[in-house]
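From: lab user (bench 3)
To: helpdesk
Subject: output format question, protein + pyridoxal-5'-phosphate

Hello, I'm new to running complex predictions and I'm not sure whether the block I got back is the full result or only part of it. Here's what I submitted:
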Amino acid sequence: MSSKKFETAAIRSQLDRSQYKEHSSPIYLTSSFVFDDAEEMRASFAEEKERNIYSRFSNPSTSEFIQKICTLEGAEDGFAFASGMSAVFSTFAALLKSGDHIISARAVFGSTHSLFSKYLPKWNIDTTYFQIDELDELESLIQPNTKIIYAETPTNPGLDIVDLERLSKIAKKHQLILVIDNCFATPYLQNPIQFGADIVIHSATKLIDGQGRVMGGIAVGKKELIREIYLFSRNTGPALSPFNAWVLSKSLETLSVRLERHSDNAEKLAVYLEKHPAVNKTTYPFLDSHPKVQVAKKQMKRGGNIVTFELKGGIASGTQFLNSIQLCSLSANLGDSRTIVTHPASTTHSKLSEEDRLAVGITDGLIRVSVGLEHADDIIQDIDQALKNVKS
Ligand SMILES: *Cc1c(COP(=O)(O)O)cnc(C)c1O
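Helpdesk reply: Thanks, we reran it on our side. This is the complete output you should expect:
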């Protein structure tokens, strides 16, 4: 990891200044780069010379973003993608071949779940799920063709915590690649590589952008694994646009400040909700009532910005609650400066059977709040007035 503190590295890791001596890195909106002569072009394509050729392969704005995330995650190398999902898919596509096997936590992002159930089987890649609470049983799921262990922590929307240290011990013992989607924690709150992960993935669309503007994704980790991901991506074209990379690199300058405030606000909301009579259960990784609070505090700096709670009245009270919200937004994104409330049972997870929903902790009355950067009093006031309109 960089010798500089997180806050400093997030601001001061930038491109070398151009002839104009700009203070803040410019955007390199160019699809290709020029060569002085045939020999330079040959040497560049032969990778004897490290330089930009074409923006599907690399671009200075994208490289700055990748370099910063590598520094902040303690990773050797990385590649940036057009979205979080292209980072997830390209990682699997680059590292696996037909006949390989994945072991994944059951509670993963919806589209990642679709990759496992619908698309990867087309190439004869199967996935077995493990329960986060039963890591002892994970080893019995390992097959001779298992290549990757995959997990998110905290999970969405259950906010369950996976013990990264224990998971990586299992992965190392069986020489499996441990891939962690670190989207909910960001590199500021948690560095999975420090606990033994081989690859860390982010949807940069969420808290890394932090203001709901651009899509982006990134995979960072061991040099030889990233090399495979780079070669696959260089040929298949999921690269992040230089403009989005520039936005995301600037966003990292404020990540630490934002995550501190996000976590302050989320903690206040969680404490308020825990005492509310219309609420059955409140979940937040740093609440003493969270079953994994000790693991969360071991591997995370703060609890993050997502709080969930359960309304007593099921599906109907969930829709009533959303319809009563005035300040917060009803939106599919998370990690925005604006607080967002969602009701997974009637939206993102409505296609799952009730049994499958309950298996990943989604009860009918579950509300997910992506706590923003407005004043905590105003966020709580809006949720409070909406709760008054819910009949339980
Ligand atoms: C949003 C999200 C993704 C997918 O990212 P996109 O940028 O929307 O493609 C993957 N994993 C998690 C945990 C997410 O929240």
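A quick orientation on your result: The pocket of pyridoxal-5'-phosphate is lined by residues 83-85, 109, 152, 156, 181, 183, 203, 205-206, 215, 217 (CB under 6 Å). Let us know if anything else is unclear.
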